[in-house]
Design brief:
It is built from two helices and no strands. By secondary structure, it is mainly alpha-helical. It has one domain.
Length: 131
């Protein structure tokens, strides 16, 4: 406490301080036991350990969930790859069909061109013969 002016204070000698220190050391365990201070530290330590264990378990669960998620993503990617392969095969089939169509179209074009050429020749021959 702060002493106010005019209040008498007692000066302590070194020997008095030693006696006070010894008294406090002697009584401190009793005072702490009365306050349950030692028990409080133990309880806090146990609570922290329990919390650490719970956090570690939760981290383990999260790790397992992440692992499962990655496995599912791998399976899904494999499914998508298979689907892409199927689409590629279908595109190849369509390419073959288009090539067949082109070859047919080319043949038809040649036949039509030959037909027009023959008709032109026949018309010219008919014109010369018919006159």
């Amino acid at each position: 406490m702060i002493n106010s002016p005019g209040e008498k204070t007692m000066a302590l000698q070194d020997e008095d301080l030693v006696k006070i220190g010894a008294y406090v050391q002697q009584r401190l365990p009793e005072w702490l036991a009365g306050m349950n201070y030692a028990r409080t530290i133990y309880d806090r330590d146990m609570e922290l350990r329990e919390r650490i264990v719970r956090v570690e378990e939760e981290l383990k669960n999260q790790r397992e969930l992440l692992k499962q998620g990655f496995e599912q993503m791998d399976k899904r990617i494999d499914q998508v790859d298979k689907r892409i392969d199927q689409v590629d095969k279908r595109i190849d089939q369509l390419d073959k069909r288009l090539e067949l169509f082109e070859s047919r179209f080319s043949r038809i074009t040649v036949i039509i061109t030959a037909g027009f050429a023959m008709m032109t020749v026949l018309m010219s021959v008919y014109r010369f013969v018919g006159q």
